Amino acid sequence: MSNPSTLRVPIDLGDRSYDILIGSGLLADAAAFDGLPTSADALIVSNTVVAPLYAQRLAERLATRHRRVLQVVLPDGEAHKDWQTLNQVFDALLGAGCDRKTVLYALGGGVVGDMTGFAAACYMRGVPFVQVPSTLLAQVDSSVGGKTAVNHPLGKNMIGAFYQPQRVLCDLDMLDTLPDRELSAGLAEVIKYGPIADMAFLDWIEAHLPALMARDKAALAHAIRRSCEIKAWVVGLDEREGGLRAILNFGHTFGHAIEAGMGYGAWLHGEGVACGMVLAADLSARLGLVDAAFVARIERLVAAAGLPVQAPAMPIERWFELMRVDKKAEGGEIRFVVIDGPGKAAMRPAPDALVAEVIAAHTAR
Amino acid sequence: MSNPSTLRVPIDLGDRSYDILIGSGLLADAAAFDGLPTSADALIVSNTVVAPLYAQRLAERLATRHRRVLQVVLPDGEAHKDWQTLNQVFDALLGAGCDRKTVLYALGGGVVGDMTGFAAACYMRGVPFVQVPSTLLAQVDSSVGGKTAVNHPLGKNMIGAFYQPQRVLCDLDMLDTLPDRELSAGLAEVIKYGPIADMAFLDWIEAHLPALMARDKAALAHAIRRSCEIKAWVVGLDEREGGLRAILNFGHTFGHAIEAGMGYGAWLHGEGVACGMVLAADLSARLGLVDAAFVARIERLVAAAGLPVQAPAMPIERWFELMRVDKKAEGGEIRFVVIDGPGKAAMRPAPDALVAEVIAAHTAR
């Protein structure tokens, strides 16, 4: 790396290994692209919010590496994370006659990353792609682990693939333009890594929350690196989500139900996860796995990060209906990620009555 | 296997290895299903032609292994091999609340197999599936090798995945109801394995063509086994189509252009390949790789199998336009699978003028 302050997190997945680079000014740094596949064509996939800010900068960098640099700009938001939007990527690739060596660049948040990754997995049965996540949420979470997908009207991320990028470029400068609400949503996934894996990191987050919310670059770089390291460790042990990897879904069973129940886009993913973590921590306490002080600590941190701790009002049958389509469910039984003592997660079913109690205790009236 | 006459072709792909079983009465043979994943749900994906003939028989067999056996019946034919039809499979799975252990059974020809395999690759990022190919073409070819896909308006099989089945069950009894035209189309892919890999097999096919066309079970079983063995050998060396595997596409560059140019469904895939093999053999001769007698031999066998040896009339620019979107093309250069001496294939570009000569020489006037 030409820039000595750039951090590198290696993701070790055998012949699908790749690096996450974290630093300022990466888009302008030729060295950050060293070793990526060159080919006749590259396609930048972005959205209507991010493209005007950063697509030109990335296109100029790629013009030194590819004969043609094409762009496709998708509508913004989870509501457009569907097959119809994905097909715009295929239309662009086939319309321009792009071959199976074409490199896709995902420039945007988690939605752009998930859709571009899935497009790369499927186009001519697989082309290389690079993640350039523009949000904190995507930098700490959705750009790591190879999960790609689109939504189906009956469920979130139901159609997808496990497909690894060639590299992830986390340019911290892109976070300067991120709205406060999205910064907070990203912090939800950062906070998550504490209770499930690393209580020392939770201490660090509590101590550095003001710096993180003020977008201090050094604090953000450390938070992203540590989150990616923990995720990399988990994904390295369980790439295809046989078991352990599911602990990364702490807060997500409740969170997905909130997102789907409110209509995609009303709640940000990170907001659903944040509130879901409070509920899952409480469920853990009611199962006798952690004490009430632990639940209060999670709730306090979530609130301090500008995130919701109260679930929206939904009929209880609707909650269960939504949670039963969760991908972790098996044979109709919902399985929850719970905290099995601070810093350690586990997956288990829970009695419906207990789950209903948890939801009632955290629903605004 | 309970039935001693059932043939077994093991496909060795490490932790994605599986067996092809070839025999009569497999659908009714409980032993043919031994070791396949059991789970709460199974989904049979079939089409309007095959479902009325065989879905009930398969459903009865699966009812002993799964709590629910669901069915989805797709419209028949290459014209429906698209995302809209694929989505019917996702709708069925999600509508019934099927989890990620659900086993998909592809009961039909190549189109059903390709779409079911792709649906299995994508549903919740991957569920197990079993191929039950009902046509000779699917039994010898499209059910082996893990290629799954749907078409895009701008190109055939452009959106897909490499995804291996748990098993392939080739029940020879299903060939009894196959129309003659489709039997011939399947023979095209059988014939292909001679010139690219095994001239002794080509001798055998010539000697047993009457038996094959009379649907003699022993002859068909041998033809399917040998085709699968050769394909398995090639795919084992090159699962992701880096190079060698492309030789399986002998006749396909011309053939795909014919299929796409005439509108999917007007020519059967095997018919396009058959005619394409004659053109590719002639191209090989004009490149000095084989002699005229070899071309005549291929053409004679193709015709004897009831397959077309004359290409349809299309403007030459249209031919090149269609061939340039072939997945083997790189940087706009078309690459052809040629016969580099009898029994040995190679991939190479060819001068446009020579290609045009070949097309003109084999086009009906």
SSE order of chain A: EEEHEHEHEHEEEHHHHHHHEEH
N/C terminus separation of chain A: 54 Å
Q: What is the CATH C-level name of the largest domain in chain A?
A: Alpha Beta
Write down the Rg of chain A: 20 Å
Cofactor (chains A, B): NAD(+); Co(2+); Zn(2+)
GO molecular function (chains A, B): 3-dehydroquinate synthase activity
Catalytic activity (chains A, B): 7-phospho-2-dehydro-3-deoxy-D-arabino-heptonate = 3-dehydroquinate + phosphate
Function (chains A, B): Catalyzes the conversion of 3-deoxy-D-arabino-heptulosonate 7-phosphate (DAHP) to dehydroquinate (DHQ).
Task: Name a few traits of the molecule.
EC 4.2.3.4 (chains A, B), homodimer, globular, alpha/beta, 44% helix, Dehydroquinate synthase-like, alpha domain, two-stranded antiparallel sheet, 11 strands, Rossmann fold, 2 domains
Gist of the model:
Chain A has 12 helices and 11 strands. In chain A, the strands form 3 sheets. The first copy, chain A, has a 7-stranded mixed beta sheet, with helices on both faces.
Secondary structure blueprint with pairings:
Two copies of one chain form a homodimer.
Chain A: E1 7-11, E2 18-23, E3 39-47, H1 51-63, E4 66-74, H2 83-95, E5 103-108, H3 110-122, E6 129-133, H4 136-142, E7 147-152, E8 155-162, E9 167-171, H5 180-197, H6 199-213, H7 217-237, H8 252-262, H9 269-286, H10 292-304, H11 316-324, E10 336-339, E11 345-348, H12 352-361
Parallel strand pairs in A: 2-9, 3-4, 3-5, 5-6, 6-9
Antiparallel strand pairs in A: 1-2, 7-8, 10-11
Helix pairs in contact in A: 2-3, 4-5, 4-7, 5-6, 5-7, 5-9, 6-7, 8-9, 8-11, 9-10, 9-12
